[in-house]
UniProtKB/TrEMBL annotation:
It comes from the Eukaryota. GO terms for cellular component: external side of plasma membrane. SUPFAM superfamilies: Fibronectin type III. This is IL9R protein. The gene is Il9r.
Amino acid sequence: GYMVSLQGNFFGHNHTYLTFPEYSPRKHIKLDPPLNIQSNATASKCQIWWSVWNVPWYLAEILQYELQYKEDSMSWEVALNKTLPSSLPQVEIEAIELRSGIAYAARVRCKVSDNENSYHSQWSDWSQTTVFQKADVPKVSEKILNTKSMQYLFIPLSFGTLLYLFWNCKLSSR
């Protein structure tokens, strides 16, 4: 630990003020915000991932992340927050949480997990944002449906016709 004090000339007199008698840097960490936030949305889920920079490996394993996402046209005050259960720099949002045809923005921040005793930190600043939109569920077109129907009907009808012709030719030859 360290002892932190302020010294200065105040009103013509030198003074020393003891600010922190036992300052421990490991208990006052502020991390840089996550970088390179990216997203990939499908019809069933949206995957979001990012990286952290300038974080020692022993802290990277005990980080806690918070995701915030909202409709892109809304303000961050109405955003949804999720504290992520894992220290992995990724998350999935189920499609049921997203509306079709709406663009969403997401950002993330990090800190040392509250479950950690050796280190303590405040939340980092928010990362840059990523914008994503739920992919539409592909619809089966009428043309494909008709083609498939014809394939399923063509084979039995052809087989039935061949049997009919074969049976008729066999009977007529007697």
